Amino acid sequence: MQPTIRAALKVLPHAPGVYLFRDQSGRVIYVGRSRDLARRVRSYWVDLGDRPHLARMVARVQWIEPVVCASEHEAAFLESDLLDRHRTRYNRTLGMESEVWLRLETRAESPSLEVRHQVDADGASWFGPYLGWEPARHAAGGLHRLFAIRFAGSRLTRSDRELAQSLRVAEGDLAALAMSIRRVLDREPRAVDSALDRLKGLREEAARRLAFEHAALLQNELRSLRWICEPQKLAGLEPVEADVYGAAGSTSVVLALRGGRLSQRHVLARDGHRRQPRANPEWVELACANASVMNALAQAQAMGPLGWRPPRENQT
Questions:
Q1: What pLDDT is attached to residue 280?
Q2: pLDDT tens digits for 46-100?
Q3: How far apart are CA 243 and CA 263, in angstroms?
């Protein structure tokens, strides 16, 4: 194991994020993401006897570059962007799940919650984006199970009216059901926790009844709802354009946000001046978290070459 690797493994945080492996020349040879950077990255330096392709890669790694994110979902967006910029040698897949949105229609004629690939200015409420068609679809299914908005419409078929009666849903419930869905998709903590707890209860009840296939479906909906409700700021309806500053110890970090995505992360020696942040506190918190981990790498003499290729549309 290279001394730089050994030192880096000691200071990696137990936090979600993206990790880049670089070879001796500084070239990015692998990009990955994890809910726990320290645990995932350390797993590469164990017995890899049954995974020779990883063993060959690990032998070439000279530097580890971690990027802290607010959640694994947020890390997935950054991983996708970085894989699009860096054609790495050892990534077998591009990690580019479909970017999708949830469309909440609240008109009485056709209330619904649907997964869409593109946003339309059609008067509906849009949430996202999220990475992964299947997780978004299962999450929408779970929300409809809890808040059956489709059955609160004014133009139901006979069979749908019977289902609405069995679910105790009426047309007058439409506004309340829509608001409940909106609060979850807006990631209001109490609403999210309540929805997750209800799905857990339904899953446990299905297991007690030995309805294991139904329990598995509920588990999928639970996992998917948790995924889309994870905080992420790297994509949205209103893209952010800003340079966000954070500092820790002798290191400062500037997150260059372009079009709402993390275009570049600049790591600099701290100049000693205090700067007043002009961005959302969540962005400042993320910049400071990255400054902290990069300062730890610098102190351990494990900071290697940095800098990412620009987004492909800016490459010449």
A1: 74
A2: 877 677 788 889 999 999 999 999 999 999 999 999 998 888 888 877 655 789 9
A3: 10
- Percentage, residues of the chain above pLDDT 70: 94
Q: Which of 157, 147, 158 is nearest to 104 (CA)?
A: 147
pLDDT, averaged across the chain = 90
Residue 316 pLDDT > 50, yes or no?
no
Mean pLDDT calculated for residue range 303-312: 82
Backbone angles phi and psi of 30, in degrees to 5: -160, 140
Q: Which of 188, 191, 217, 193 has its CA nearest to residue 205? A: 217
Got the DSSP string for the chain?
Answer: --HHHHHHHHH--SS-EEEEEE-TT--EEEEEEESSHHHHHHGGGS--TT-HHHHHHHHH--EEEEEE-SSHHHHHHHHHHHHHH---SS-SS---PPEEEEEEE--TTS-EEEEESS---SSSEEEEEEE-HHHHHHHHHHHHHHS-GGGGSSS--HHHHHHHHHHT--GGGHHHHHHHHHHHHTT-HHHHHHHHHHHHHHHHHHHHTT-HHHHHHHHHHHHHHHHHTS---SS-SS---EEEEEEETTEEEEEEEETTEEEEEEEEE--S------S-HHHHHHHHHHHHHHHHHHHTT-------PPPGGG--
> How confident is the model over 158-174, as pLDDT tens digits?
999 999 999 999 999 99
